[in-house]
Amino acid sequence: MKKLLALVMLFAAQPTLAHPGHDVASGAIAGLAHPLTGVDHLIALCCVGALLALVSTRVRLAGVVALLAALASGAGVGLSGVTVPYAEWMIALSVLVSGVMLVRSGSAQPTLLVGGVALFALFHGYAHGVESSGDALAFVAGFLVSSLVIVTLSTLAARAFVERQALRVAVGAGAGVAGMFLLSILISG
Question: Which domain holds residue 93?
């Protein structure tokens, strides 16, 4: 427990700022908050957790590893300054696709599910990397921890309701509608 507390304190440490106007939400704190403040990221992560609840433990573990590796890789691309075209479109599409997959009760083959999670996570990670603030390594560590917690809690919640198909369909339909809304914003903007 002491090690966990020390790790949390390490990630939460922020430099002292002597003058007002500095961005106080940077580094690990900003990274931890980032997936929670972006509705598109939050919905996608919750859907990934719900989808992973429908597969075997081995596939679930592979999905989580693929998610974290792709998020970190995408963040590296974003931090490097490389511009990835259509990243926002892919993020909106990920919300729509994950919602449709939930409505269809996670009917994708395990390799397709894990590959899809990794593909879309690259774009989410890229967006996080582009929007990072403060210490880049701390920011990435923060959003990876936050993403893992969201997916884990979503998986546990979905497993508790795995027999309630109507709930899964409702959540998937809501995510699908959110994805279509995000895509409509991109189309009109």
Answer: 27-188
